[in-house]
Each structure stands twice: as structure tokens, then as C-alpha cells.
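Appendix C. Worked example: Major facilitator superfamily (MFS) profile domain-containing protein
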Amino acid sequence: MLVKINYTFLAAFAAGLLATSGDITMTWTSPIYPKLYSNDTSINPLGKPITQEEDGWIGSLINIGAMIGPFIFSFIAEKFGRRIGLLCIAIPHITAYITFAFARNVYLFYFGRLFGGISVGGGYTLLPMYMAEISEDSNRGFLSVSLIFFWSMGNLLPYAIGPFVSIMVLNLILACIPISFFIVFLLFGVETPYYWLKLNKPRKAQESLMTLRSLDKKGVQKELEHIQKNFKREEGGHFSDIIKNRGLRKALIISLLLIIFQQLSGVNAVGFYLQSIFEASGTDIPSDISSLIYGFAILITCFIPIGLVSRFGRRTLHMVSCVGVSLSIVLIGIFFYLHDSTDIDINRISWLPIFSLLMYVFTFSIGVAVIPWTLSSELFPVNVKQISASAVSTTCWITSFIVTKFFNDMNTLMGRAGTFWFFTGCTVVACVFTIFFVPETKGKSFREIQDLLLT
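Step 2, the predicted output written as C-alpha cells:
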């Protein structure tokens, strides 16, 4: 049993390095913006500070790339396999980081953000699918939620390294992550049995299961028959099947709304502009140190949902997470209201922004961060999984683009307090939606989940 778990986890670990590469891109802007706004040419490779408009495009272009990525890499995964698809995702990541390292004009930063975004969109589409398809029903939730550790590590690295090194050194270091993924996954990545069955190659599917489970033919026969039985029910899927089937239509609506609510919680706005938020708050703690504390909190709290998801289920964790996120964002809004709109002395509560953001990352990580992606990989049968994953991922990045591109405009129009209270309202609505419409998928097979959606 130990060897069996270890090899499945080895394949999952190799894939997880790609998740780290992707979320580096998400927080990369936080330590980069202060350098690009600097008048010091030894710090700013552009030779002059960027404008607010350039700031907005650098922050948001990743989302445009991420809208495109799901379609490109879903096609590759469908045509050449999940393994090849994941390997291809590493290439734009490597290209983007090397471009950033040697960029001397803002358009190269635009290119790198757009190109890196293509990989981010592809990763968020294929990684949950890959984790779900290499796992057993009993550990599928654990493996899917374990992605949050690798995403969290990616979030941490720019905070931990970025403020203390040059833009060139930072990006050369970051390029090593996708390069390492490519090498490790090339050696240890296993194609999923679902893909081989899709190609009508049951022997290949059997070999895949034997490798993943470290068992002989007899040992994987029951699981293979179970997969084949479900697969035959699910062959030949198209987008029209989602629209026509009441259960799949319900699954799509749930998945799309959960991912929209995730982005409307303000996660990417906070991550992209974290150091700037701390600087604006005027707290006694240096902004780079506050950002580093926030990054470590992301990494530490990522272990919590891995254990909780198997005990309490997806639905419960998402509800609890929404409540915690709402409370933490309310506190941030209150701080900025007192800071910007009153004469009240806030020195005594200068700790509130870092406390609120630590509360935010803790409560966000236990549910809102990962449950929408986990559910989107569980609610759909294999024949429409690529279609649904592309739709969910694209919706995520469209919403993220809108939030990050207009974050500064929202601050100008509604004030910083109003912006965070807007995120609060969206998260409250997400909690209500979860209570009434989101099913529990804990411990259920793909077929049982489909049956549940029809009730």
C-alpha cells in the first residue's frame, strides 16, 4: 500500500511543480511594481517610472493570456494526452521569465505577462483534471486539494525573493521552477487511464493503472472495469450535451458561478497589489516584510484544507471559508475608511491590515481558493471534462481581468474602503449560493455525482 500511494503521489508532486510556476505569475507584480515605479535606473530597467495605465496593463494582461490558454492546452491534451499537454504548458512560463529578466522596455513586460498568462490558463484547466484522473475515488479530494500547497509555494516565492534582488536575478531564479517541472515530469509523469480509454486502448489504460497503483494486472482489474463501465456511458461528449442534459447544465452553472465569486472576493487584486496596499495603509511594518509574512501565511495555511476536505467535505468548507473571507475584507475596508475618510488616530490599530490579510489568507485557503477548482473537476464526466474545464477557466480569467484592470479605478470611484466592501458583498452572496445550490461530492464516484445532480 505504501509503494502504491508513493508513486501516485510522485506523479502528483511532479505535476504540482507546474502549479508553483503558475502562481508565481500571480504575485509576481507585488515586488515588481515598486521597482518599476522607481526613478533609480539601477533598480528600474525601463529607465523611467511606469504610468498608472502601464501598471494596469502589466497587472491585467496575464488574464487575457489565461483566457486563451485553456483552449490551446485543452486541444493539446485531447489530441496528444494530458502528459504532453502539461509539458507544453511549461514552455511559455520559461519564455516569460527569461523575457522579464532581460526586458528593457514596457512592451516586453506586456509580452511576458500575456505569454505567461497563456500557461496559467492552461495549468488551471489541466492540473485539476490530471489530479482527478490519476487518483482513486477515496483519495481524489486529497490529491486535488493538495494542489493548493504548490500554488501557495508559487505565491510565496516572489514575496520572499523579489524585494531583495534585482528584476533580472528574480526572474532567472523563477525560470528554474518550470524548467525543473519539465525535467521531473518528463521522467515521472504518467498518462492517465482515462485518456487511454478515450483512444480505445484498454491495455495502455491498464499499464497506466499498474504504474500508478504499483500493482499487477489482477490488482488493478476491478478499478479498470469500474472506469471502463463509467467511460462507456460517457463517450462522445460535446458542448451541446452539457446544454441538453439537466444535470450537466446544473453542474456548469454551479462551476461558473463559484469561480466568478472566487475572483470577486478580490484575491487577485490583493495578490497583485499587496505591497502597494501595505504602503498605502501607512502601517509601522515595512511593506516588503508584511508581504513576506503574508506569503508565508499562504504556505502554512495551505496544509489545512488537505486534511479538512476529507473530513468535512467540499460544500461545508466553502461555506465556512466564505464567512471568514467576508469578515476579513470588512475589517480591511473599515481600516481604509478610518484612514481615508476620518480624523481618527489609527496608530493604535496599525496592525489591523496585516491581521486582516492573514485572516483573509487563512479563511480563503480552506475553501474559496481550491473548492471551485476541485468541484469543476468532479462534477463533469470525462467526455465533456475538457469543454467544461475550458469554460470554467476562461470565465475565471475574464472576471480576474475585469477586477485587476479596474482595481485602481474602483479605488478612485468608490474609495479603497468601498472597493473592499464590494468584495465583501460578493463573498456573502457566494456563501448563500453555496448553502442552497452546491452539492456535496465527498467520497462519491463520477457516476454518483452525476446522479446527485439530477435529483
